[in-house]
Amino acid sequence: MPSVSPRIRALAVAVACIVVALAAALAVDSRLDRHWILRGLTLFLALCCTALLLTDQSRRLRQIITGIGLLMFGVVFPVTSTTWSTPPEIDFALAVATDAEKAATKDARSVVTVEDVTAAAAARGGAVGSLKTERSPQVRGADDFPLIVRAKADQGRPWACVSFTNGLEAKVRAC
To answer: How many angstroms separate the CA atoms of 89 and 160, rounded?
Structure first.
């Protein structure tokens, strides 16, 4: 079996890292922050490990360490940042945003209102705004965008913020 030259191997690994990084970034819902800076840094570190793999063929230990770096920066970090991008409160906020968009479209409106989001959250068993307690008697995030959306009406945290820009375009983030 013929061995593959180190340059071809390094090029193949670099292309694989770029494909994994882009696929992992694009797998995140467009309404969420995709953390492009973090993803760019991990891709840069993976490509640095690829360059080390290309240039330094002298010691086996260095190749192993470089391979572990490639595995971490090229596969593990991009995939885990994609799977962790939607905790349950973010999933709930995305579902509420989708329901609010559908309600506005059904009523032939080009803008989602606070009432649409409030009704969608209530229909799913959640609430809008911070939980009113003795410690914080004033409800925040229930009157205008960005709205605080809670998955459980009787629970204060965790929550997510939902805002709508350009009418029906939702943006969801942790807040």
So the answer is: 6
